Amino acid sequence: MKTSAKNLPRDFEALRARIIAEHPSLPRRLAQIAAFALERPDEIALGTAVSIAKKADVQPSTLIRFAQAMGYEGFTDLQSVFRERLRERVLNYEERLNLVNQHTRELGREERLLQGFAEASMRSAASLHERMDPGELERSTAILAGADTIYIVGLRRSFPIAAYMAYAFGKLGVKTVLAGTAGGLEPELIGFAGPKDAIIAISFAPYAPATIDLAAEAATRGVPLIAITDSPFSPVAQNAKGWFEVVEADFEGFRSLAASFTLAATLTVAVAQRRRTQR
């Protein structure tokens, strides 16, 4: 159905909400563009139809069909929403980093590595702050604070984040179970979780099948699920009562974990503080 001009999303948050709502009914290629657009909005804002299509692994005509599926006349109309998002930023972190780069061209190899990883961490943290929904943070904190036991599952790249959260919760007096053992006992551990508990599932593309299965199985048993992942279309987020979108920047192919650990610290402290006020 054609969207009227009156109801057409003219700001990024409204467009993002529409993309998420329409995603389940989109054809495969349009769904591919939808995921790309939300994961890499700057690419949509700054690229050409040809360059964006190449990076998203679709034909340029697919961008036009996607824009029309969202209610726009063409891709340029949709792209203007992404460009406005950039203009509305209070702080332009990319410009700041480019300015820093002008003063670091003479650095040695090791210093350039440090600079590169530091910049990736800054971009990651800025992206987390930009994407964060304060209401989602409050709701998820309330769910976790009300849980008898918090079960945490994160495998492969996500394991350090899960381990940190378990450690921090322990130090803050919050009962937790870390499901990510070398013995492969995750199903048995998560099996103890009930509706009065909660589970935090952490997974990023390519998503760990075990994390997906454990999270889905726990959700079917009524265990409240909080997901930390990298896309609204992540399989880990599908059954979640609350979820957080974390997109990490990379340097030379090595992905930062700065935003993930920032969110992990925020959640653990917020949950501990709320539990104290509920006593």
Describe this structure in words.
The longest helix has 23 residues, at 109-131. This protein has helices spanning 12-22, 28-39, 41-46, 49-56, 60-69, 75-87, 93-102, 109-131, 134-145, 159-171, 186-190, 209-220, 258-278, and strands at residues 150-154, 176-179, 198-202, 225-229, 242-245, 250-251, 254-255. Helix 10 (159-171) packs parallel to helix 13 (258-278). The mean pLDDT is 84. It has a five-stranded parallel β-sheet, sandwiched between helices. It folds into two domains: 5-87, Winged helix-like DNA-binding domain superfamily/Winged helix DNA-binding domain (Arc Repressor Mutant, subunit A); 134-278, Rossmann fold (3-Layer(aba) Sandwich), CATH 3.40.50. The protein is built from 13 helices and seven strands. The chain starts with 11 loop residues before the first helix and ends with a helix. The chain is 56% helix and 10% strand. It has 279 residues and is an alpha/beta fold. Helix 10 (159-171) links the parallel strand 1 (150-154) and strand 2 (176-179).
Concise synopsis of the structure shown:
The protein has 279 residues and is α/β, with parallel strands linked by helices. It has helices at 12-22, 28-39, 41-46, 49-56, 60-69, 75-87, 93-102, 109-131, 134-145, 159-171, 186-190, 209-220, 258-278, and strands spanning 150-154, 176-179, 198-202, 225-229, 242-245, 250-251, 254-255.
